[in-house]
Specification:
Elements (H helix, E strand, L loop, with lengths): L1 E8 L2 E10 L4 H12 L6 E12 L1 H16 L3 E5 L3 H9 L3 H4 L23 E3 L6 E3 L1
Amino acid sequence: MHIDTTYPSRDTARAAVVGEVDLATAEDLRDRLLDVLRGHPPVALTVDLSGVTFVDCTGISALVAVRNAVVQVDCHLRVTGVRPIVRRILDLTGLLSVLTVPPDQAQRPVTNPETLTGSGSSATASADPEWLVAA
């Protein structure tokens, strides 16, 4: 996996991800995106997944963790360029609309989620997919 981070403007960061996001690479993705939020966080963080050919549950968990972190620093996250195979996974998990929401729509922090995942999962979502928790 390769991540190319650019700053199109002072308040905007863009991370283009290429390759597979799985057990071997998800932690790196999460850490690299969280690094963007340290110091002076951007107003908007766009994660371009057009180069991602595969994502597993650890990759989904990394995206959820980053999504929760951007909410805490009052940043907006938007995932773009989602290929059909990745789109299907995000759709099945209820995360597609949450992660691809336009920046002008408010994100809400987690307050009281209803767990929908089975045992061993590291991310949960409530009936309202905008409320997420990364464990």
